[in-house]
From TrEMBL, chain A:
GO MF, any single term: NADH dehydrogenase activity
Protein species of origin: Haloferax denitrificans ATCC 35960
Record carries keyword Nucleotide-binding: no
Protein's recorded name: NADH dehydrogenase-like complex subunit L
Keywords: Membrane, Transmembrane, Transmembrane helix
Pfam families in UniProt: Proton_antipo_M, Proton_antipo_N
Taxon lineage: Archaea, Methanobacteriati, Methanobacteriota, Stenosarchaea group, Halobacteria
Transmembrane segments: 7-28, 34-53, 90-109, 121-138, 144-163, 184-204, 224-247, 268-286, 298-319, 326-348, 354-374, 395-415, 435-458, 479-501, 553-574, 655-677
Domain of life: Archaea
Domain NADH:quinone oxidoreductase/Mrp antiporter transmembrane: 138-428
UniProtKB/TrEMBL annotation, chain B:
Protein name: NADH dehydrogenase, subunit N (Ubiquinone)
Main location: membrane
Taxonomic lineage of the native organism: Archaea, Methanobacteriati, Methanobacteriota, Stenosarchaea group, Halobacteria
Organism: Haloferax denitrificans ATCC 35960
Membrane topology: Multi-pass membrane protein
The entry's keywords: Membrane, Transmembrane, Transmembrane helix, Ubiquinone
Subcellular location: Membrane
Any one GO CC term of the record: membrane
Transmembrane segments: 12-29, 41-62, 82-106, 118-135, 141-160, 172-192, 212-229, 261-284, 290-311, 318-339, 351-373, 394-417, 429-449, 470-488
Amino acid sequence: MAGILDFAPAIVLLPFLSFLIALGAGRYMPKGGALAGIGATAGSFVLSIATFFAVSGGQTYNQHIYTWATGAGDAVSLDFGLLIDPLSSMMLVIVTLVAVLVHIFSLGYMNDEGETGLPRYYAGLGLFTASMLAFVVSSNLLMAFMFFELVGLCSYLLIGFWFRQQGPPSAAKKAFLVTRFGDYFFLIGVVAVFATFGSAAFAGPEAFPVLAEEALHGEHAVNTFLGMGEQAWFTVVGLLVLGGVVGKSAQFPLHTWLPDAMEGPTPVSALIHAATMVAAGVYLVARMYGFYALTPTTLGIIALVGGFTALFAATMGVVKKEIKQVLAYSTISQYGYMMLGLGVGGYVASTFHLLTHAFFKALLFLGAGAVIIAMHHNENMWDMGGLKEKMPVTYYAFLSGSLALAGIVPFAGFWSKDEILYEALNHGLGTDGGLGTVFLIAYAMGLIAVFFTGFYTFRMVFLTFHGEPRSETARDPHGFGWNVKFPLAVLGVLAAVTGLVNMAPVEDLTGIHLTFLHDWLDGGISSLTAHHYLEVLESGVGAGLHPAGIGSIAPGLVSLALALAGAGLAYRLYNVPEPVEHTDKLGSIKTVLYNNYYQDEYQVWIATGVVQPISRALDKFDQGIVDGVVNGVSSVSLFAGGRVKRIQTGVVSNYAALLTLGLTALLLGLGLLGGWFA
Amino acid sequence: MTPLQSTPEWVATAPAIVLALTGLALLLIDTIDPDSTNNGLLAGTATLGALAAGGIAGWFLIGGTGMESTGGAISLYGDALVVDGMSLFFTLIFTSVAAMVSVASYDYLADQRYQGEFYALVLFAATGMTLMGMSNSLATVFVSLELASLPSYALVAFLKEDRGSIEAGLKYFLIGALSSAVFAFGISLVFAVTGSLVLPEIAASLAEGTELVGVLGLGVLMIAGGFAFKTASVPFHFWAPEAYEGAPAPVSAFLSSASKAAGFVVAFRVFTVAFPLGTVTSIGGGSVDWSLLFALLAVVTMTLGNFAAATQQNVKRMLAYSSIGHAGYALIGLAAITVDGGAANGDVLGASMAHLFVYGFMNTGAFLFIAMVEKWGLGRTFEDYNGIASKAPIAAAAMTVFMFSLAGLPPFGGFFSKYALFFSAIESGFWWLAAVGAVNSALSLFYYSRVVKAMWIEEPSANLEIGSQPVGMYVAIVFAAVGTVLLLPGSQPVIETAQTVAAALF
């Protein structure tokens, strides 16, 4: 077990080092610490690639690093550790690659645009990357939680980077508070996992998913609470952890922070959406999938939340005017697909979509960033148009990302999204009872969302790049250098070809073995393989899923047709020299969509109408009773202290008298007790 | 292998001999050149002597001299002295405090006359304290206690031009004389009952029983009074606030850390060796329950010390009262001893010793910081400390370490020792004593943090000026601060050593 995996901690530590450098010495360095960040993340990327190859050679790494607390009698120990298996090594590559490209892109977006506060920016990026990497390699749920929180903190710092303007601080606060609301449940979930299993390890001899499985088999007992049976209690624990996931991955109803988070610098949005913050939620479910696979209720809820979010966010994306807003809703929608996939038992499919989405969404955000540079930071698509001729590299890269997002064959997003939908249909038809119906409903929502995705994606492409320029800036866009074009080119290629690693429909069609990602995720630690998850899912103690055994070609064609229909409609409406807003035709629906289904309004109402009165009451209690007691104790103490001080008169004969009296009192007391005077 | 296998047994008292010889050497230097102001030579000699004595004690401690691994305690001069782990452990405290005080005095005494006498008195007092740790007979206890006390009186009154110093010295001396009288009377009563002054022989005599339980009880109580004077415990504490406030600040540091520890080491030995609790609690139809006595004193002392400290306006006086409060914590070591405690007795006594060890660093450092403030000519109240951190950040950071460590906050040494003390008290069944201690600690955080707040948060007054940067004081303060911080990661060996040497007493 020696070799390259022993360097795994360096993958995390390098970006952390760049954080320290940027923070401490960034202002003395050229480019405000950017070069340190690029160097560190590039180093991490190289190490991640090496790790990736080591893992593909069959190695894994589950190493305990440091125990920072042990409970009484060693009942519980809180550890830091590294877990490197196929899933985490794949995620390492994604995160480090996107981080390098975002750093390079930032040279163009931040440095060349003359932003101030660059050391703070690069320090934030470094810490953000380091936290996410540490989260990815966490060997237990508590460590994952800690870095999950750190990821949240970094996104707060970076979204609010332009803290002197009005919007960003408010958006940062919102992102922080909304995700914190979910993380509150996650924290209770972590405690519940410890209380139930006495361990929160993902793998190894005390892995809690394995313990849970054995408990359901009746092999040994675990602690359950509130008088629940094991199955019911595991569902509760799973849902508690899911609270954090819903917040971070911006799933309904905690998705409201994400569109506002567009106030941050665009490279940060790319990092948040593609590889770090939002990906963390879905990754967590994948990481502990062995546990979720045991509770059908949780899976059903995940599938429904995912399917609903996919559709719901896609409809809102249809009417947005700002290019980044469209992308924000597309992110929510795409993570909805991943949740849908995880819910219906498509572990590999979801992980696949996580991979492809990371590349094409990073590409789209960086492309949008390039457009924004060109448009002098005007994000309104109705002021753009005709940029295709002016910025061809951006256009073709963006087009590649858009085709992937819309799910057009053979771009990356098609393969992964199609596989999710196929799994949903396959398991929905095959599984008996309510769970199958739930899967079919989720599938239907996901399928309809495909149409909307195709539509809003190409509406965005046509409005931005096609037609006649609709403003002065669009006629004469701002130029930019290689540091913008290079990341776009790399990601453009990846968005086109990543899907080829797992072409399930083509395998069905031709019989050639093409599902390499399946093989990849089947390797490594035995309790963390896709194969094992499938066994659990289909077993009696697990969710009891059954595939219907349908072919993957027909469902693929259906979703492709819907995506093309959406894109075609966008072509009809918007690929004209002088496009006009068609939203008025929607009537009152338009108002609802513009207001994002009044999600913000009802959450504000919850905050002011429900939470605030409770807080006031608690504040009263705190001010009146708790503080009253504390203040009372302190004034009594000070009063008593003042009295004690008076004994010290300064007259030495008083001291001698008091001393003698004290001794006499002691003599009398002890003497009477001890029978000295008998 | 003991370092002393082929050497005569009296070599085991080497730390005391080195200290005494250094004191004499200082007098010699001063005699050769009475008007010398070569402060560096004097301070250097004193520091070296203290460090050498401490080094020898440490070497013995590691080598196992006087401990079970090399054949048990070394008894000398007809059992009048005994060298064992506990005496060496405390010698380490005395010498490190003496060294820090000597280094800091280099700056504090720069303009004073009679410097040679000052250092000699410090070393003679340290010799007395070291002998207190080794005393195995009530006669040597008394003599060594006086050897420690008499130089202390002179040291408190050292600033002959300063009325406060003179007054403090006189009060200290008067209360000391009264306490010594009480103590000597107690010794005579115990001798009357048992017919011996040697501690193990007293125990042996008591084991045979006696009819004179009242006389014995009075004697034990009066002996406890003598120790209460030395440790500044209620009701013999009255001298402490005045003496610590009036004395030169390095002397306050020396008295409140080393002298207090000396009182405790001798109390630990006398009560555990001469008056085993199992024997004296059921003797002659009565009971002399000194554990109850110390429990009572511990509660009253820590409560009084902390409550009075909370209302002080003068930082030095606040520290004086806090020092009384810490005596209360250390008394838990004796209070929580039980008849059938077994290993738990050694644990709680060792925890108390460890607390005194940490206290030696953090309290000395705090008083030396006061000495530096006095040197700068700033006032003595909390307001006068406003904004010191803006002028002297390193010293203020060290003071912050001392304050938080005294309050028992992690990550400093004071946290571990207080934790170990309260924890082992609970293990011995004295949870209420630990609870009182915890409440008092919480209160103490209030007044300790006032100093920190004044230094870091309050705005400095417009004319805040600090003069020189006294090197010696900085060295001593930083050394004490580093010691205080390192004692948290280094807590394991300290507590283990302390509990091992404490267990040897039972």
